[in-house]
Amino acid sequence: MTPPDSTPPLLQIRGLKMHFPIRQGMLFKRPKLCRAVDGVDLTVHHGETVGLVGESGCGKSTLGKCVVRLLEPTEGAIHFEGFNLAPMGCRQLKPHRRHIQMIFQDPVESLNARHSVGQILEEPFVIHRQGDREERKKKALALLDKVGLPAASYDRFPFEFSGGQRQRIGIARALALNPKLIICDEPVSALDVSIQSQVLNLLLDLQRDLGLTYVFIAHNLAVVKHISDRIAVMYLGRIVELAGADELYRNARHPYTRALISAIPEPNPRRERERIVLTGDVPSPINPPSGCPFHTRCPHVQDRCRVEVPQLRPAGPGHEVACHFDL
Amino acid sequence: MKFSLNPITAKKLRRFRQIRRGFVSFTILAVLIGLSLIAEVLVNSRALIVRFEGKWYFPTYGAIIPGRTFGLDYDYATNFRELQARLEKEPERGWVLMPPVPYDPIENCYPGEFFRPRAPSFAERHFLGTDQLNRDVLARVVYGFRNALIFAGCYIVLTYLIGVSLGCSMGYFGGRLDLFGQRLIEIWSQVPFFFVVIIVASIVSGLGGMNLGWLLGVVVLFSWTSITWYMRSVTYKEKARDYVHAAEVIGAGNTRIIFSHVLPNVISTLVTFAPFSVAAAISALTALDFLGYGLPPPTPSWGELLRQGTSNLSAPWIVASAFGALMLVLVLVTFIGEAVREAFDPKKFTIYR
Ligand SMILES: Nc1ncnc2c1ncn2[C@@H]1O[C@H](COP(=O)(O)OP(=O)(O)OP(=O)(O)O)[C@@H](O)[C@H]1O
Ligand code: SF4
Ligand SMILES: [Mg+2]
Questions:
Q1: Residue A123 touches partner B, C-beta closer than 8 Å
Q2: pLDDT at A2 > cutoff 60
Q3: To the nearest whole angstrom, how far is the Cα of B300 from the nearest Cα of chain A?
């Protein structure tokens, strides 16, 4: 893959695998593995937004959690600013933690209900020993202002807020330590449609003002379409296609991506478009299909697909696809 | 740190207050506990106040006062009831104010007389009669209650201490500790509790005597498992929640996550078990005392009273007092437990927690 500019990328994921051992009841059965992420390469540059799209269960959150090192990957490397985070232990990780933050899907789950908003926002400063009590409070108030919440929120508790406001609190917490990279794990999918665009706009404004880099996870293309510079499409723990956002829309090469695009509601009803309906269920990551992971549902499947795993290969400028054929 | 109550806790407490039966039971039990703490003032063979030849004495607490102090012809502890009777004949020397129940739980109220249970009598101030060793039943009920409370309090502290620390470590750190702990609990909870306690108790009694510490140790040894198991599973679940992940991403270490995030969230549900633990502790103590494997005589206890009462059914006040006291406390505790569970029910709080 050729980076568009010569500066080293902010994040470089190489051959990342996350296999969860699945415990089974029987005493002598060999433990099985859930291959949630099964060999992902991804490069993220300063200041860009990479959308990560895929069906539920394809391993998007797992990938995100590996990057923020909530999970210890089974294999592979996560290079962030010249450090490989993948094999690091707790101690080594601590200084790097502040640079990579995460925004969670469910704003109810991601805030400790026993802590006031002030406590939540000051916790990062307490942990990283920044400032004294007064300074911390000042910083927390500044964060509230940044995400558009009134200063009076400081003494309130999470349950006193609506979903969108809670997500703003979560965003404020993620911003506290001036991170460089933020993993947004479906930050708006738990919100009302009317609130979604407000929160998305907030994220975009913050990116512009603070020079943030986002990895934006979503389960459909419609959300990431407008905010991503590049989009990676995931299927069963692998990236099957990666391209600039516009390029992906106009020129999708992978049958799975095409199916996803055709599922986006067409704003113009007169422009009839072929709707590709995928049959069958997503295979389980515990028993992934041999060869191309998509072959069980692919309309173009050939014999070769069942035995040989397609690797990501260039398919145009900044465009990569993992399919044996040029479709 | 601010000491203002977390609004969630405040809400739970408010709801607890609204559950009438539970709150009334709670108030009654609190009063009873309060009274038992000052039992020396209410039920005691020592006088509250003695005025003797121009001097004041407050014998309730503190060292014993020898009889010679009051012009009696002995050096051992003053018998204040006798003193009171004597001073009533010569009021110019002073007077004695006795507690409402002027008897000790372990004294023979009628030394030199036959051992026989005496029926309740207001004139003699034996409000619940005496037992077969001439001891005042009310005094034994009151001090027995206090012993049961001390036992239950220590029991709760110890089982929760073990349960919370071990269960939380198992659930949080997992791995080998968890695996080993799980197997241990599974095996341990299959051991028949009472048989083992009785065996251990008889060995200990044979070796030199049971006391509160031993009894507590033996009972706790066989009751830490359930709370540990519970703590393990809730910690395990709590640890997987996103707010814990969020803290981790910020850089919080294990200590911080456990003490500032996980424990405060899971411990609140432990409160709902506390009343039932109290009931279990009191029942266990009473049962062991009843069987004669509990606290050594002459320690006042309800189990011992029950045993006396059941073998002296011609003196029904003994069994009635012990049984009544036990029932009252267990019913109160159960009502409280019910209300606490209702008010603290985590199911109602899933959206807020
Ligand atoms: N801790 C774990 N232990 C075992 N399996 C796990 C674990 N976490 C995730 N998985 C499995 O890994 C797979 C991918 O999960 P993941 O949460 O990453 O999916 P996702 O793409 O984020 O889906 P969604 O859109 O529903 O959030 C799923 O099959 C899931 O069951
Ligand atoms: S490799 Fe084969 S099965 Fe896989 S997407 Fe391409 S055509 Fe379909
Ligand atoms: Mg997810």
A1: yes
A2: no
A3: 44
Residue ranges in A220-301 assigned as alpha helix (H)? 221-227, 245-250, 255-262
Give yes or no: residues B234 and B334 share one domain.
Answer: yes
CA A61 to ligand 1 centroid distance, Å: 7
Q: Quick one: which of A165, A186, A42 has its CA closest to A108?
A: A165
Interface contact B245-A128, CB threshold 8 A: no
**A vs B: CB pairs below 8 A:** 73
Q: Residue by residue, what is the 3-state secondary structure of A285-296? A: CCCCCCCCCCCC
Residue nearest to atom 5 of ligand 2 (CA): A323
CA distance B231 to B237: 10
ipTM for the complex? 0.90
Rounded to the nearest angstrom, the distance between the alpha carbon of A288 and the centre of ligand 1 is 14
Centre a 10 Å sphere on the Cβ of residue A269 and count the other Cβ atoms it contains. Answer: 7
Is there a contact between A108 and B351 if contact means CB atoms under 8 Å apart?
A: yes
Ligand 3 ion: residues within 5 Å (CB): A 61
Does some domain include residue A102? Answer: no
- For residues B262 and B318, membership in a common domain is answered with yes
Residue A205 has pLDDT above 60, yes or no: yes
Amino acid in the structure at residue B349: F
Q: Which ligand is nearest to the CA of A288?
A: 1
> What span, in angstroms and rounded, lies between the C-alpha atoms of B245 and B6?
22
Q: By residue range, what is the domain housing residue B244?
A: 7-37+138-349
A102 part of contact set with chain B, CB < 8 Å: yes
Atom of ligand 2 nearest to the CA of A240: 5
In chain A, positions 145-184, which contact chain B (CB-CB < 8 Å)? 157, 159-160, 170, 173, 176-177
- The mean pLDDT of B178-190, rounded to a whole number, is 90
The verdict on residue B112 lying in a domain is no
**pLDDT at res. B53:** 82
Chain segment B270-285, per-residue pLDDT in tens: 888 889 999 999 998 9
Nearest to B243 among A65, A110, A128 (CB): A110
The token pair that represents A143 in the structure block: 């964060």
Q: Is residue A164 part of a domain?
A: no
**B253 domain-assigned:** yes
> Reduced to 3 states, what is the DSSP secondary structure of residue B177?
helix
Nearest by CB to residue A97, choosing from B250, B261, B353, is B250
pLDDT band at B3 (very low <50, low <70, confident <90, very high): low
- What CATH number has the domain bearing residue B276? 1.10.3720.10
Structural domain for A302, as ranges: 7-97+229-327
Taking residue B249's Cβ as centre, other Cβ atoms within 10 Å add up to 27
Q: Does B237 touch chain A (CB under 8 A)?
A: no
Residues contacting B86, CB < 8 A, separation 6+: none
Alpha-carbon distance B150 to B212, whole Å?
Answer: 9
* B286: nearest Cα among B191, B200, B215, B213: B215
The per-residue pLDDT for range B202-259, each reduced to its tens digit, is 887 777 677 788 888 888 888 899 899 999 999 999 999 999 999 999 999 899 999 9
The pLDDT tens digits of the residues spanning A66-90 come to: 999 999 999 999 999 889 998 998 8
B332 and B215, same structural domain? Answer: yes
Same domain, B67 and B18: no
